[in-house]
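Intended use. Records like the one below are meant for learning the mapping from a protein sequence to its folded structure. Do not use them to infer anything beyond what is encoded.
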Amino acid sequence: MGCTPNASHSPVFLLLGFSKARVSASLLFFLFLAIYLVTIIGNVTLVLLISRDSRLHSPMYYLLRGLSMIDMGLSTVTLPQLLIHLVSNYPAISAARCLAQFFFFYAFGVTDTLVISIMALDRYMTICNPLRYHSVMNRQLCAFLLALSWVVSIVHTMLHVGLLLPLYWAGDAEGNVKLPHFFCDHRPLLRASCSDIHSNELAIFLEGGFLMLGPCALIVLSYACIGATILRLPSAAGRHRAVSTCGSHLTIVGFLYGTIIWVYFQPPSQDSQEQDMAAAVMYTAITPLANPFVYSLRNKDVKNALHRLLGRGREDS
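Structure written out for the chain above:
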């Protein structure tokens, strides 16, 4: 697609993802407002529980606290702006704000996937090498792995932002570029560009694919070893206890990686835009919402910590 003379590096983007929705904007507003508030409350509660309760000061919960903070950032990058646009007749965002949203969304999102893969390593050490767990998975190593995840994520995101900067977008007579999405995501931005995007797509499938395959390989190998160890356990109770420690993590892995692979690693198609947006809602809204509930409802330590906190609150009152 060639660029017209009015094409620009810095147009105004109109985020029209829900403009053709079959339900009213008011209903969507209250739905996403509820999702955002519950996400923040749930993750803040989990962070406070892990920070305040000494029984939760283990490497697994240190990583879980980091994941909750990342999830709050991921939701905050997209949902407040969506709420504003749902009540606005002009859902516009400048090019600078769009790229800023793109940067923070991918910085939080990639870090999210890396931390979840580190949690798989934690599960592997817990079940397959319990005697070495505390000597290997100490707090210093967890802090280093979290910091490394952020560095890798930021470098990855800066690469893709750098590849977006030279692109042109041809807008309408008023200079507006319509994006059939609710935030500045990679695929919609590339589809709307009139420039050659082969280098961008190559980076997605090569560099982005490598960054995805590494954590996926770590998760698969960890759970392959975990599965082999569980099968060798002599008692059914021991096998059940080992499986239950991995259930929450496997649930989040399925949510997260399923939607990411669906959105970013299928061949681009105009017909898949609605499906892409539905999967993006799962990734940006539902997964951060689900994390604190999956880990609290399926985890006795977290439930007991919540009961102790609530009981202490009643005693203080």
